[in-house]
User: Fold this.
Amino acid sequence: MIDVIRIFGPLFVWFATFSAIYGLQGLVCSEHWPALGLTLSHGRVALVGAWLVAIGIQLGLVAVLQMRRVAPATGLAGDVSIWLGWSAVVAIIWSSFPVAVTSTCG
Amino acid sequence: MSPLRRHRQLTRIWQSDPGWKGWFTTVNHNDLGRMFMGTAIVFFLIGGILAMLIRAQLATPRSAFMGPEVYAQVFTMHGTIMMFLFAIPLIEGAAIYFLPKMLGARDLAFPRLTAFGYWCYVFGGSMLLFAMFAGIAPDSGWFLYPPLSSTLGSPGINSDFWLIGITFVEISAISAAVEITVTILRYRAPGMSLDKMPIFAWYLLVVALMILTGFPPLILGSVLLELERAFGWPFFQVAQGGDSLLWQHLFWLFGHPEVYIIFLPAAGVISTVLPVMARTTLLGYAWVIAAAVALGVLSFGIWVHHMFATGIPHMALAFFSAASTLVAVPTGIQIFAWLGTLWKGRPQLKLPMLWIIGFFATFVIGGLTGVMVAVVPFDWQAHDTHFVVAHMHYVLVGGFVFPFLAGLYYWMPLLTGRKRFFRLGETAFWLVFVGFHVTFLAMHWVGLLGQRRRTFTYEGGHGWEVINLISSIGGFITAIGFGLVIIDIAVNTVFAARIRRDPWRAGTLEWAMANPSPAYNFASLPRVSARDPLYDDPALPHRIARGEGYLGDAYKGQRETLVVDIATGEPLQVVVFPPNTPLPIILAFVTGGIFLGLLTKLYWMVPLSLIGVAALMALWAWGLGSRGDDVMRDVGHGLNLPRAATVPQPPGWWGSAFLLLADATFFASLIFGYAFLWTVAPNWPPPAYLEPGIIGPLVGLAGVVVAPFGIRLAERHLRRGGTMWPGVALALAGAAAMATAAIMAVRAAADPELHAYDAIIWVIAGYVLVHVALAAGMSIYATVRRYAGYVAPDRFGEVRIARLWTDYASVVALIGLAALQLPGAVT
Amino acid sequence: MTTLVLLVGCENSLSTVDPAGPAANVIATLWWIMLAGATLIFVFVMVLLALTFRRPGVADADNPVGEDGAARGREKVWLVGLGLCFPLVVLAALLAYGLVIGERLLPRDDPAVVTVHAEGRQWEWRFSYADAPDLVTENVLHIPAATPVDVRITTVDVIHSFWVPRLAGKLDALPGHENVLRIEAWKPGRYAGVSAEYNGPGFLGHRFVVIAHDAEGWSAFLTDGAP
Assistant:
């Protein structure tokens, strides 16, 4: 089962962090955000911060995949899961970079 | 034993009952795979006729053939049938039929579940057909946006047929996905490690996991919308705290993965057929697996690209635009892997290859227009026009129908046992291929000229007339082509000569058996040491037939196959499958009573049917298991393996685990919906949040802790030879405490018709109650089985299953009840 | 195809490739660029596909071509080069282009902007004007030409979608939400609009007209309520 988890894990985590950033963006643009005494600039900082954390998580996951403790039973699962780990790093950078460039709630 | 005698004995064991009765009692994947595919093709014909009606109507401006009401039913049913009653069931049927053969197993993991899924599909699909012939079919588009599809826009029964009928059909998708997953992971030939698995199985593994996580949001959406329509719980009504956008999120959380759920099996067919047609092996096997997994998971992160015109902030659109372009990368990797495979091989222009070329020419265009509509500003123009209609047909016909036709001609010898003799197939291909492009290529342009989708007619003078006429002519050419395909297959099935084994000289295990495939697949299960076992050892089919593999002795008239280790493929257990039984069709029929009761608003039918379902399921599970006699089995080659029913994690545990994956996705979608409404919906906060109180949360928390502890205690006592009762009593007390907390929350909430918040409380609490009841029921069942001798100190697998469900119930109770209290506690 | 465009009377035209305002214009340009790029890629793939048949199947092809030493090199070319890098570069460029345009089309603050309100219902549109609070028009929207206009879009019943193809992309009218679409017409004239989201049996007839006035006509409309 470790092989299957290794293969599906990295991008699954991408889906979770990507959705969480989307959720955070929704919160920033909702009425709850000003009710907490926060502005859109705070929102931008929070979003970029979340993005960087997410990238860190994906990089950490690549490191975990290299660890002996989670070694795969087949060489194939080792290769494929490391590629997919890096794919997830690219995916989170690529899919969430708008936090840094586009207008937040317009 | 001679091969012929072995063949006769195994056939007697595995074949369906003789006569008409066999259709209703069979649980063999050979029969059910064919039945699934055959039924799906019938629905394809019906959906195709609807398409012809649409093209007839749109051939000329101001056509008086259909009015807007009838036209709305026709386009809604065309989309619904093609997506839910044709594409998905055809994939399920193909997986059910081919997977065990490719993997080297004699059947799927849960044969009766296959049959149950099939009958749910037939009954649910029949509901929709009935609605169509009665003129009360769903009429608000296949994605059924409320408020148009809710009581405001569709007061009649039309939408109910969709919500209830499709949910019924989805049972078959979920059950097929559970068993496809378990089968691929555990029911393979000995020695078939993950890196030797046929590429088609990898694709289907991704697809099955996608169904388990992609369909639950739709099922949740359907439940919520039906609750709104039937009881006025306002999940999508903005005035009472709902939001119509919630439906769009839930629908497309399903709807976008759905596109890839349809494409990936087709890509699996291409990755299997194309190398054989080019006399080579697939280039970059590991790359293709990585691409398939990446495509599958990335496709979940792009659902909002169907909602670019809903006024969502540009940053959110940008996320999904970026993710949508990203999925083109793994698609590109696969396309170039196939081209590279052709490049290194010697492609031969046989009929399956012709369809694959048709796929390339069509799907690449669909992919490129897909990238176009992923670019937000362009989508603002193209959305809801005929451009999108053309795009999606390029993707779905090019990316699904063409590859499956390639597969159909490729595997026809296995299905029918006959050669292709009458060469209508080539003519049919050219008619379909040319007709398709005539229909849809210019349709992109008419969309850009502003023709909306779903208008029942149009005025002249926009430059649309010529293109629409050409499209209609092309549509009829395509239809004639598909007609010829069906005639071709029918004629060849009946008249053509018998064919030898492995006519394409392929390397995968499904070609190691006689044509057509015998009911038992393999006379003995071979040990596999290469990705293409037949290239590795051309004599393998003979050795299988001579019984030189495992389980070649037709032991005690039992249906047996091997369970292997997930990664290495080493055999671990022997599983004994149930024989033919009418139980699946009866269970599906009684399950239908639930849906029929909801549809006709005869609500007394619902609890009655539920009791029937529970009783039948208890009966269903009773036949499984072992009383401890004949535990070990000599499978051949000196290997002695235990029966799968006697191990700590029996097949039912694995089935439960993956069913719970779907269930957890359902619950996560529900929590997402709740958070979404809290964040985005106008008219929040509700008049009052739940008062947290002290007693309710404490009682609930106690239950959450005690129930998992209790069931573990029961297992411990059992394994020491003691009584299970103290532990089970604790588990039941915990369940009762959780149920109490859930009921207290509901009693404290306001009327669910008043505000979406209160309605959500009812749904979450209801969800917790159902799962607590399930867990309690399983604990009691396991205890009863102890007295019947099926559960014993060395056979505690069923207690493990109860433990799994108890743990799940505790987790959802904890999260669900906390989520209910959270807003009130914070404010 | 151009003849087809020309045949269409401008008055009725719903053509997105016959832009009459800045938003529709940048999107039309985007389309032509994407069409050119997509055509190139399509031809490239088809040529590769055709070239694979340069060595037709031969009689001894019964035995499959096995792996050889060149396999790794092939993977590098086909999978890394063509499969991975080629799409990534093309898509990065396209995505950046699309996002820049998308940002530019957003309704940003602008002192010159005129605000109107579009209210959808089954099956008509009611338009009202921030500069003339008592004025309501049905199925005809008046705007000043060569001026950015914010259309605040709402609905009283089901979901509709406000779409004037020659001026801008479409935007939905969602219950409980107000969406703002920036439109602008370069010149005075009449521009056809439709509801783009299916909304029931009257969907076909759910149309409207946008009339763009010159400065004089616009102030006359605001004071007299008639063009």
